[in-house]
Amino acid sequence: MAVTAPGPEPRPGRRRELGYTVGEAARVAGVSPTTVRVWERQGLLSSRRSPSGYRYFGEEELARLRRIVYLRSAERLNGAAIHRVLAEETGQAPRARSRNEIPVGPRLRRLRQRRGMTLEQAATAAGLSASFLSSVERDQTGISPASLHKLADTYGATLTSIMRRAAPRLAQLKRPGRRRAIRNHGVTMEQLVDGQTMMDPTIFTVEPGAGSGGNYSHAGEEFVYLLRGSLEIVLGDSERYLLKQGESLYYPSTMEHRWRNPGAEMAQALWVNTPPTF
Fold this sequence. Notes:
Number of helices: 10
Order of helices and strands: HHHEEHHHHHHHEEEEEEEEE
Number of strands: 11
Shape: globular
């Protein structure tokens, strides 16, 4: 079957009526045209065709493109995780918060206010944008574990302290379904203890393609035992470990580390930090 090549590109005035070309959209978003085409092939973006065969992006898709650029560069999410975040934000995949899931946004707002910091000051210190932090505080968008850790550190707190509640005694029995949890960007973190302890045991459940969203480090040591699936953990710039079910890893938390689920099925791990500095 013969394929007809696109005709002459429309004049600039006519082009703006149709929308933005790939090159124009790329310049506005600060990425290359090749990147825009790749994201379109991955289904992150959609375009419409002119009668002459050229692709154009409207204002809504341009805003979506800017959001993708942010999630990729600042939150360091991969394509699968970006798909999930965009679906949640546009209401395509709404989810109900479980009764044990912690609303992180209001807690982060209170921490910022106690520190006497403005949105701009806190966002700059944590390497985020003020508009994104505002959305996080209003629980309108999620935040990756790495960015959440950096934000808590900015406030002189830890993710553990945000999740935990006071415990009257050290001996504790935690039953399934009663664990306090944080769920964002395809990662669920369930606290296994409360109060002040020397260890911070947590169950991490990581959806395919999801992960930490970047590097982070903190004081202490940590132990990871993989309960199911697979999990890739990268330490520093050179040490890379692919954990399978039943395997474990122990390392100093002071090393920059990141992690993700490279597999096609859910990964679940018992993760222990000591002391609770994450």
